[in-house]
Amino acid sequence: MKITSISQQQKNKERYNIFVAGKYLFSVDEVVLTKYQLFKDRELTDEELSEIQEEDAIRRGLNKAIQYLAHRVRSEKEIHTHLAKAEMEPEEISLVIKRLAEMKYINDLEFAHLYVRTQVNTTSKGPRQIERELVTKGITREYIEEALADFKDDTQLENAVKLAAKIVNRSRKSAKRQLQQKLITELIQKGYTTDLAKEASAIALEDFSEEQEQDVLGEQLNKLLQRNRRLGPAKCRQKTITSLLQKGFSYDTIQDYMREHELDFEEEQD
């Protein structure tokens, strides 16, 4: 078959339409056009046509991948998924991935190191959460372990304490015991180990004084008394103490506070 004309596309100046016998046959990237020396009156065999179209498909895949990479560094799996959504053939995707690696556009080990550093510096995530995220991005266990070595123990503790302090600030109305358990639970959910979560929570609660505990207890007690006074003296006392126990206050602390403040449930009903 003979190429009868070639025209540049209007919407994409880097692509060219190829016509055979006056009819549109296919389009190619400018790089492919040059590589295969496509010009008017050039004769093409079926084998050459197939090779050109395959090369152009790879070139389009490269362009899509590079545009995708322009926003941020990606893992090989992320690029593979992106190209698959663009309905590229698996064989073509493999060739695009290979080309990208040769061009040093992708490197999963470097990606893992960069991802860990970014998460450490910009989020409150612990190592286990970062590890889970890297797994979903297709990073191998070997690369993950090497990259997570960047997340030093002292930095983990520092980040965990910062997160714990934020939780304390928004949980001022909780008993210390309940707040400590809340801190440990949330830190573990964020990907920190149990031991580190306990250490960080203890540090964050160092300034939580007995006076603060008493203030929180008094505030919670007054609210419960107002709510439960309609139940009668015995029921009011029982329900109030039960609620305070559920909020993390110890029975002895509750009793001491009531005696110190001379709370009389009979009087609360008058």
From TrEMBL:
Residues 107-148 form the RecX second three-helical domain. The keyword Plastid does not apply. InterPro entries: RecX_HTH_1st, RecX_HTH_2nd, RecX_HTH_3rd, Regulatory_RecX, WH-like_DNA-bd_sf. Gene3D superfamilies: Winged helix-like DNA-binding domain superfamily/Winged helix DNA-binding domain (1.10.10.10). Residues 63-100 form the RecX first three-helical domain. GO terms for cellular component: cytoplasm. Modulates RecA activity. This is Regulatory protein RecX. It comes from Listeria newyorkensis. The gene is recX.
